[in-house]
Amino acid sequence: MTVIVEKNVDVAMRDGTRLRADVYRPAAAGRHPVLLQRTPYNKELWPITAMTLDPVRAAAAGFAVVIQDVRARWASEGGVFFPYRDERDDGYDSVAWAAAQDWANGAVGCYGLSYMGGTSWLAASTGHPALKAISPTTAPFDFWRDHFWRDGALCIGTLAMWAMRAIGPAALIRGRPSPADFGPLLVKLVDDIDGFAEVLKDVPLDDFAPTRPGDERFLPFFYEILKHDRPDAWTDGLLVQDSHPRITAPSLSIAGWHDLLLVSDLKHYRAMKERGGSEAARKHSRLVIGPWAHGMFHNVVGEIDFGFRANGLFMDLREDLTKFQLRWFERWLKEEHNGIENEAPVKIFVQGLNRWRDESDWPLSRASDERWFLGPNCTLGTTPPADGAPADNYVYDPENPCPTLGGTLLLPTQYTPGPLEQSPLLERRDVLVYTSAPLAADLEVTGHVGCVLYAATSGRDTDWMVKLCDVHPDGRTYNVCDGVLRASFRDGANRMPVEPGEVIRYDIDLWATSMLFRAGHRLRVLVTSSDFPRYDRNPNTGEATTRATRFEPALQRIFHDAARASHLVLPIVRS
User: Fold this and answer.
1) Which of 112, 245, 294, 389 could form a disulfide with 376 if both were Cys (CB 3.0 to 4.6 A apart)?
2) Does residue 251 carry a catalytic annotation?
3) How would DSSP label each residue in 257-268?
4) Is 114 among the residues known to form the active site?
């Protein structure tokens, strides 16, 4: 089928602002369902806009595809960019425009990765009747709890990288500096991006030079985010965590075990199943979880090859992500009864087994929680500790933080996301290592993983990081999932002071995984207090990390006696 491409088509918003879109549609006369993607990353940047769905293939399959620059980005009008603030209303207006075109049949679907997944959810939350289905991939849910903040810790690496690298260059151009200033400013921005880890050590963060504090034409959202170190009306209004009852379109959520928005996708799925705004939304919303990292749908993730079945180009040896999503939209926008609604609502990739598996729901009802105790002499096992076991100690020094090594990252390319060999961390004096005996049989962990730490610090605040790892028979240690908790946010959104030396129970969320630990392998847990530059450094002084200029070492104590039995909570699936 011949495809027509129209460039920079004007789409008027309710306030008169013109957003511009590229349109891919069949050349043949007729009306077609519309697929809408709204992006801040340049609608012409195909490595991102076509990463999970090829617009030319979609147009050849009978869809009109609209890829639009969001407000204040690239070809669109709108002043200074601010993430998510305008996406709800602009999403509604864009859906209405798309449905009304003379080449459209009135049915619209929204799709896209990461921020574009967020714009899909925000458009759906308006309840526009033309929006019949969405397919958000690795999309945010809650701005404070699992996006730029995580359980009290600031995801400074993600925020700074996104601001400087993804948004900064185009924002610099739109700010219209003088010709004499533009060259030096661009060189300085690029140098700061290249020297990422060092510039992030500059304090205080709320005077972070690379994002040019005080320049309202550049990246003002960076400093606004730093002001909101706990959830409030501002953070709650940016995304859709409470909007699912208004969403009537069924959703296809595509997630990754090593993606920084994994828990957001899991929350979206549960919210749609429990509170979706229509029977179709509650009954037909679906979830797919691969072994992927953010924006990476390959079979090699980090340093592990999960096999070609994991690759998004030939997922489960059946189809690629484009064909999979087109089947989804053919069902709901073309009303073709192609059987996709009869497939399992949840499809997960079991790591270690390296196979896809259909499930009836998430989380798995047949998984049972099992406690694995952090024991004396660096042991890990299912036997509760005896009374009188001494605590383990380490010193956390914010001036020498534990470096980031793998995980659910969105950082510059020198930081590899996903499972990496952890040997560089095992000998550090600020990392405690607990290891099980070799497994006598395979052990499947599928579901939400938690850790209960009984701990004390000499600081007035501190952070706790816990990492679950898979130890191969040759000793190689690979991270599986991890969690962080700022001590002062142990009660969730309510900041509570920490009394130095007091033993406190901390419940740390390691998010979720599906991992088959093979017989002969061992489980390993790493406990520390920093992961930099992924998270900001806690100064241990009780001062807000965004304003801190002074750092103090802290003595950390982890308890594992009978009364204070620190332990993992693992969701075990038995054969």
Assistant:
1) 389
2) no
3) EE-TTHHHHHHH
4) yes
